[in-house]
Design a protein that fits this description.
The protein is mainly α. The protein has one domain (about 1-125): Four Helix Bundle (Hemerythrin (Met), subunit A), CATH 1.20.120. The chain is about 85% helix and about 0% strand. The chain contains four helices and no strands. Helix 1 (about 5-30) runs antiparallel to helix 2 (about 35-60) and helix 3 packs antiparallel against helix 4. The protein is elongated and about 45 Å long. The model has no long low-confidence stretch (mean pLDDT about 90).
Amino acid sequence: MERYIDMLQRTLELSDTCLEGFLYVKDQLDGIYQEQATILLQDAVEAFYKMKFALDIIENQLEENALDDYTSDISLVMEHVITSLEQNNPELCVYLLESSVIPAFITWKKELDRLLLPICHQYLH
């Protein structure tokens, strides 16, 4: 696991950035910055899937967890968010972010932190 510490730390940092991105997008989609918010949302979605890919590499080395279930929940609602943007429906997108994506991502992130923070601290201290 030691050889993956850098990746784990970067995943934790990216999860913070991704959450900030979702929150920012939610706040900006109603305003004049809709185009920028759409681009940032695409970046946040891509970041989420990159984190998932990174975690797949070490999945069998982690203790039992619910990350896969939470990831599936987020992926499902993300499809609806993207569709709402493609259909130029920012109101629905904001609603989905507030009611589904952000709460699910926070739950996913808490599980991620629970799993990875102790590992990072173990090898870095």
